[in-house]
Design goal:
21 strands, 6-stranded antiparallel beta sheet, about 550 residues, alpha/beta, binds 1-O-alpha-D-glucopyranosyl-D-fructose, binds calcium ion, 8-stranded parallel beta sheet
Length: about 550
């Protein structure tokens, strides 16, 4: 992608906030918008450019806000529209844009469209949703919901079923109906008028569902709908738009992120995120990370989208376990591993996303009892697997490894009660390790994970090679080292990282030209090669990588200054 066609979001870093767990301002134990406003200086310090806000619209909270009952009002638990407008303007003062989370595949069953739709088959809102005639107990087909149980719910008054890919309280919207699409477009334009800087589109690849053909994502009219959505709304502004697409492959991602802006800026694809689950099984049936496969998967996405699309770069979000526990080390090497994972991710081409607490190296949690978990997905899975005869111990281990509440424990601000998140009782338990892992201690420690993220984010801004460079994977078959080169206009970056808790030989460093003195200690700068960032507090070796050691070197063509 050449410089002049670059969009602002290609050189941006986005921070995701899960509002209910970020900062409570009124002591009810639930994070809110005024709490976010209080923390904007912290985010400005980190250096991020936009905030993706998980849903704050009115919702009965069956799926923590991903079940919206009013797309144009704020749920009182988070505040009100004035608070949101204040957030938009306060963030703007700090050159931070606000990205709203749009849940367009389904609404809440408490949305007025659905309460109307349920009244009768000829209600004007009835076909805003997906209905099938039938008889009680005989489902239209055997499709299941992502949260367990059938995807069909019986409404006796209508002698019909409605379709829901997620919870019973999340009826799927019927995108075949042009009235639905028009209402959605008008709502989006209304948000654009309020000055939002972009949108994240929840399970957007599921909107063209075809239940009779058992199609959930990647339906036949998907790109037709998305291109109309983009034309009618996003293209009328200068926005970042990112679609969540669990079913995306390279060809679709090229359509989704086409540089002409005909669909989105980019998508979240999840191929790398599904590598540590048994093939063909659920995420709860986890297996060790196939490291070489991870490298080749990321290499594929880097090379295939270079110059003809755009990647999102993420390890974490509100649905995923925390990466330092998942693929790093959350014990003796937690700090090194958190920094290493950040280095590998932020060195690639694409827009990086930092999930709240990831910049602190926050970890997964292990609550003693299922009662302490709040997530509908966890609770349904626990009940279903217990009924199927799974051992409770194994069920809990699956929850510890892959449960979404791992990412939803309250943000750890300091070592006071409840980590400074709330003066009340937190809606979900605080991870007990907040006394060691918290923002206040890390802001004061220049070697903290926070300051390392701050340096990484700054580095990307200062060096266009991060945005425009191509990608070459090195040591593809190596089981320990993730190394790659970025190249642009005669400059090269070497990213080298040890993904293990063992010290490993790495002759690549010397071969690539890392300078060293006579006893093999690398020099941070010599003959056109410079160390840009390193996650240990001393100089690296030219020969080996210590546990979770990571670094980025820069090399200019001979004769050009570095
Ligand atoms: O997630 C889509 C989705 O499919 C995930 O829930 C995924 O199936 C699951 O997390 C795998 O563990 C989006 C939102 O990010 C999620 O929070 C919502 O629950 C879901 O859609 C329904 O809106
Ligand atoms: Ca609150």
């Amino acid at each position: 992608m050449d410089m002049n066609s670059k969009k602002w979001w290609q050189n941006s870093v986005v921070y995701q906030i899960y509002p209910r767990s970020f900062q409570d301002s009124n002591g009810d134990g639930i994070g809110d918008i005024q709490g976010i406003i209080k923390r904007l200086d912290y985010l400005q310090e980190l250096g991020i450019d936009a905030i993706w806000l998980s849903p704050v619209c009115r919702s009965p909270q069956d799926d923590n806000g991903y079940d919206i009952s009013d797309y144009q009002d704020i749920d009182p638990m988070f505040g009100n529209l004035d608070d949101l407008e204040q957030l938009i303007s306060e963030a703007k003062k700090r050159n931070i844009r606000i990205i709203m989370d749009l849940v367009l595949n389904h609404s809440s069953d408490e949305h007025r469209w659905f309460t109307e739709a349920k009244k009768s088959k000829d209600n004007p809102y009835h076909d805003y949703y997906v209905w099938r005639d039938g008889e009680e107990g005989v489902y239209p087909n055997d499709m299941g919901s992502a949260f367990g149980g059938p995807a069909w719910e019986w409404v006796p008054e209508l002698k019909q079923y409605y379709f829901h890919q997620f919870s019973v309280k999340q009826p799927d919207l019927n995108w075949e109906n042009p009235k639905v699409r028009r209402e959605i477009y008008d709502m989006i334009l209304w948000w654009m008028d309020k000055g939002v800087g972009g949108f994240r589109l929840d399970v957007i690849d599921q909107i063209a569902k075809e239940p009779d053909l058992k199609i959930t994502n990647n339906g036949p009219r998907l790109h037709e709908f998305i291109q109309e959505l983009s034309r009618e709304t996003f293209q009328k502004g200068d926005l970042i738009t990112v679609g969540e697409a669990w079913g995306a492959d390279i060809d679709r991602a090229k359509l989704y992120s086409k540089p002409d802006g005909s669909e989105f800026s980019m998508v979240f694809q999840f191929e790398h995120m599904m590598l540590d689950q048994e093939p063909g099984k659920e995420k709860w049936d986890f297996c060790p990370l196939p490291f070489v496969k991870l490298k080749k998967c990321l290499e594929k996405w880097q090379k295939e989208l270079h110059g003809c699309g755009w990647n999102s770069l993420f390890w974490d979000n509100h649905d995923l376990p925390r990466i330092v526990s998942r693929w790093g080390n959350d014990r003796e090497y937690r700090v090194e591993a958190a920094k290493m994972l950040a280095t590998v991710l932020h060195g690639m081409e694409g827009t990086p996303y930092v999930y709240q607490g990831e910049e602190l190296g926050m970890t997964n949690v292990r609550f003693d009892s299922i009662e302490q978990y709040q997530d509908i997905e966890i609770r349904n899975m626990y009940r279903e697997r217990l009924e199927k005869g799974y051992a409770e111990k194994d069920i809990m281990e699956s929850i510890y490894a892959k449960g979404r509440d791992n990412a939803r424990t309250p943000m750890q601000w300091d070592d006071t009660e409840n980590a400074g998140f709330t003066t009340g009782t937190p809606w979900l338990g605080v991870n007990p390790n907040y006394t060691e892992i918290n923002a206040r201690s890390q802001l004061q420690d220049e070697n903290s994970v926070f300051h390392y993220y701050k340096k990484l984010i700054h580095l990307r801004k200062e060096n266009s090679i991060f945005v425009d460079g191509d990608f070459t994977l090195l040591l593809p078959e190596d089981e320990n080292i993730f190394a790659y080169v970025r190249e642009y206009e005669g400059r090269k970056l070497l990213v080298a990282a040890n993904f293990t808790d063992k010290e490993v030989e790495c002759p690549l460093l010397k071969e690539w030209g890392v300078p060293a003195d006579e006893d093999g200690a690398a020099k941070s700068r010599d003959n056109g090669v410079k160390l840009l960032i390193h996650n240990y507090n001393d100089l690296p070796s030219q020969q080996k990588l210590r546990p979770y050691e990571a670094m980025i070197w820069e090399k200019a063509e001979t004769g050009t200054e570095i």
